[in-house]
Amino acid sequence: VAVVVAAILWWQLGSMMAVGFLIGAFLSALAGFIGMTIAVRANVRTAEAAKEGLAPAFEVAFRGGAVTGFLVVGLGIIGVAGMYAWTHDVATLVALGFGGSLISVFARVGGGIYTKAADVGADLVGKVEAGIPEDDPRNPAVIADNVGDNVGDDAGMAADLFETYVVTAVAMMLLGSIIFKQETLIVYPLALGGVSIIASIIGSLFVRAGNKTKYLMGPLYIGLGISAVLAIAGFWWVTQNMLVDMVLPFTLTQLIWATVIGIVVTGLM
């Protein structure tokens, strides 16, 4: 499907639009593959760590999710920044975003349909005909159900995260090119994205669960808070260094406050 769409784009809009679309589709599929691969391995290790207690299982599961998240957003910012550095054309980034969206839709919708079909089939055969409990390993259809969970919830989630991240970055860059038409303001969102990734990596290092920890959201909120503070500091530094000499219809303080509001709203959600 992606090849057919790329051929149509090549015919109607040119080769670079087609190339951008294919790159977005490839990176989205790669993000899904990475997400599913890491999840499968983290599942086993989390189950083994759970024998020792809640805290070890939490840390293994969190590390697996963190690795997937950082790889996915890393692929996103590398794809967008690399494509723009190559073409210096924001229009090709739109094609890249649509390529990521195509794979995301297939992974989410296709994986969801497969998962539900396998789930219903396994329950019908297991409970009604064979009289065995749900998710019993004696039922072969349970394997298909678990595979569907991996495809829809792991690969689909990673591809969806990639698509959301890329489309958001492309939208900000597109608005910057339309309103301001200045290179610095076009790449400014990418700089903020890079700062956010670094802040999140540092914040994830502070997510620790002790042996007596019962409320697992507590360590997660600590990591989120540290990441937010570091991100705000990084946003201030980037804004002051990139935009200090530019004439804008707003002040740099107002721009920084806008980023702070965005972080606070995200944390509250």
From TrEMBL:
Transmembrane segments: 18-40, 60-84, 90-107, 162-180, 186-207, 219-238, 250-268
Chief site of localization: membrane
MF terms in GO: diphosphate hydrolysis-driven proton transmembrane transporter activity; inorganic diphosphate phosphatase activity
Alphabetized Pfam families for the sequence: H_PPase
Keywords of this entry: Ion transport, Magnesium, Membrane, Translocase, Transmembrane, Transmembrane helix, Transport
Keyword Membrane: yes
Protein name: Sodium-translocating pyrophosphatase
Organism: marine sediment metagenome
